[in-house]
Amino acid sequence: MAISDVDIANLALTKLGAAPIASFSDNNTKAAAFQRTYYMLRDDLQRRRWNFNRVYTSLPALDFVPPFEYQYAYQLPADYLRLELAAQVSPNGNPPQGQIPTVGMPGVDLSDYQNGRSQDYRIVGLQIWANIPPPLSIIYGKKETDPNKFDSFFVKAFATYLAWQLCEQFTNSNQKKDALEREFNASIYLALNGKAIELPPERIPDDTWMLSRISS
């Protein structure tokens, strides 16, 4: 069944014991409150790690070169909300040429030994500055504006989040606000559990020291 932004707002109003609205442009204080806060709070909550708004893409390097520490600059996507990963990955998913581990006993390779401050990349304004050559492959969370693409866990958590944030204005009850905060935290916990079940275990790659300890 299709769902709209107003449907989510009305779910929040139900939690507040208030009558529903027809649209955000209604001439009443309830609609005005959602008009002011709905989209900002939606984006705020989507900055958490959700599966439904995760995007895989590659970025070309900009002509601009950072003044120091980093060699490349990349423009973040217009719908960017959060960054999960930035790396150099070939299109078919294999490691870049020259980074395939040697089979057998390659000996100790200290090429990844860190003896000082080092970060492969950093977000600066609306750009990524990096020492990773182009194209830069990133995994990021985008601003999803279509409520029909929201995860069901997100819809419940978002409606509760809206009710919690607007509770004082609508009810002037600290007790109700505290109850909604607890409900919101519980909904996030359930969402995290659901996500954990959907995903396989994530393996941590071995460094060159570990590879040097492995024999054929």
Walk me through this protein's architecture.
Helix content is 37%, strand content 15%. The chain has 216 residues and is α+β, with helices and mostly antiparallel strands. It folds into 2 domains: 5-49 and 145-198, no CATH class; 54-96 and 115-142. A hairpin with a 2-residue loop joins strand 4 (121-124) and strand 5 (127-130). Helix 1 (5-15) crosses helix 3, helix 2 crosses helix 3 and helix 3 (152-171) packs antiparallel against helix 4. It starts with a helix and ends with a helix. The model is unreliable at 100-108 (pLDDT under 50).
N-to-C SSE string, H for helix and E for strand: HHEEEEEEHHH
Q: How many beta strands in the DSSP annotation?
A: 6
Largest sheet: 3 strands, antiparallel
Structural class: alpha+beta
Classify the beta-strand content into a percent band. Answer: 15-25%
State the share of residues found in helices, binned by percent.
25-40%
Head-to-tail CA distance between termini = 56 Å
Low-confidence stretches: 100-108
* Average of the residue pLDDT scores: 86
